[in-house]
Amino acid sequence: MKFLPLIWHSLLRSKRRTVLTALFMAVSVFLVALLQSLLVTLNALSTSVSGGGGAYRLVVQDKASFTNVIPESYGHYLRSQPEVDCATAFQWFGGEYKDPKNFFANFAVEPETYLQAYREESGLGAVPAEQVRDFLRDGNGCVVGRALAEKFGWRLGDVVPLRSPIFNLTVRLNIRLIFNGRRKSDEMMLAFHLKQLQEAVPWMKGRVGSFVVRAKSPDDVPRLCDRIDRNFANSAPETLSLTENAFNLNMMKMLGDYASMIHSITVAVVLALILVAANTMAMSIRERTSQISVMRAIGFRGGLVLGLLLAEGTLLSLIGSTLGIALAMLAARGAAAVAGQILPWLADFYITPETLLYCVSGTVALGLLSTFVPAYRASRRPITEGLRSL
Asked: How far is CA 116 from the centre of its chain?
């Protein structure tokens, strides 16, 4: 600690260069933290939440495309399987609330089986029994997530008009149940009775978009997927059965190879950080050749000089990484609060502890790496050679 004033004074020898380098490090850490946390958020969409029911569920859709419909009668076979706990029909509605900009997930579902298939995600055990009863009895009733209700200021009993450009249909739904999900993004959705859609759209009678099947055990899911597809192999249409995670992953693949893109940008930022940090420390140490030689001449050992220079690089790295992490956390909170209202999956966006540790340790390691070579040379340079420039 007694050498800290000396290290700090050396670091501020060129204030402009130090400030600019720290800012560049902060921007680099800011970008890496946001990009890696974005990747974690995107990957989380295709994985089951701990304690959720995703491991028990599989999706049965049309083999050609998930946008096609399949016969509702397929549900009889699905529910007859001994490994099946329940099966619920789904249909994407794509409704807009007042303005096309008000985007959120909304589906037509079979009410009774929907609540059973998603009992963990809908917090069924904590929902008042009267809300469940009102939703099941009201043919125009709907369930909404707590985050979605708070976004639009909805309350129980409010009427929500939804216009679907897909079906050219407007439905007026009564909010009968508001649930608390395990993730905020799970609460950015609305579901209403499938019969209302089937009665209003003639070509939807007897048809559904897909089935979500809940197995009694996660071990039964692969066996069910294979058996269901073999049963409908010669039907029109044939089916494609996927685990819920695999289905979600297919949806994410529509964004392209986002993982490779994010990793490529991260590598480019890290390489630029190495070059800037190495150049900065090399210039700083080279300008102090005479000072370092004087320190060694008055008794500072080479190892101590090397340690002081490495500590200087580490301190600069810590300042830059701390500032970058602070900016990234503020940006993540803003993205979750603002962008999460537009893109529901961003509602869960945050800087993970693993990312924080990765950024801090990585920046310190880069600071030490970029400082070591010029510092080692300076600490081993002959004293007489350094004193010649005085």
From this structure: 27
Give dist(CA 121, CA 108) in Å, integer. Answer: 17
Task: Name the burial class of residue 263, with classes exposed (0-12), middle (13-18) and buried (19+) by CB atoms within 10 angstroms of its CB.
Answer: middle
What span, in angstroms and rounded, lies between the C-alpha atoms of 281 and 358?
22
Taking a C-beta distance cutoff of 8 angstroms, is the pair 88, 109 a contact?
A: yes
Spatial separation of the C-alpha atoms in residues 329 and 347, rounded to whole Å: 14
Of the candidates 369, 220, 261, 230, the residue with the CA atom closest to the CA atom of residue 35: 261
CA distance readout (Å), 286 to 21, 269, 371, 378: 17, 26, 12, 8
Task: Decide: pTM greater than 0.85.
Answer: no
93: number of Cβ within 10 Å: 25
| Angle, CA of 249, 105 and 207, to the nearest 5° | 85
CA distances from 149 to 140, 156, 182, 184, 364 (A): 17, 9, 16, 12, 44
Contact 26, 327 (CB under 8 A): yes
The Cβ-side half-sphere exposure at 380, using a 13 Å CA radius, reads 6
Helix (H, G, I), strand (E, B), or coil: what is residue 107? Answer: strand
Dig out the tokens for 284 from the structure. 């700083």
Q: What is the chain's pLDDT, residue by residue, as a tens digit (390 residues)? A: 566 776 677 666 777 877 888 888 888 888 888 888 888 877 776 666 555 677 889 999 999 888 899 999 999 999 999 999 999 999 999 899 988 888 788 999 999 999 888 888 777 777 888 999 999 999 999 999 988 898 899 999 999 999 999 999 999 999 999 998 877 777 888 999 999 999 999 999 999 999 999 999 989 999 999 999 999 998 888 999 988 887 877 766 666 666 778 778 888 888 887 777 777 777 777 777 667 677 767 777 777 877 777 887 888 888 888 898 899 888 888 777 665 555 666 666 778 888 888 888 888 888 888 888 777 777 777 766 656 655
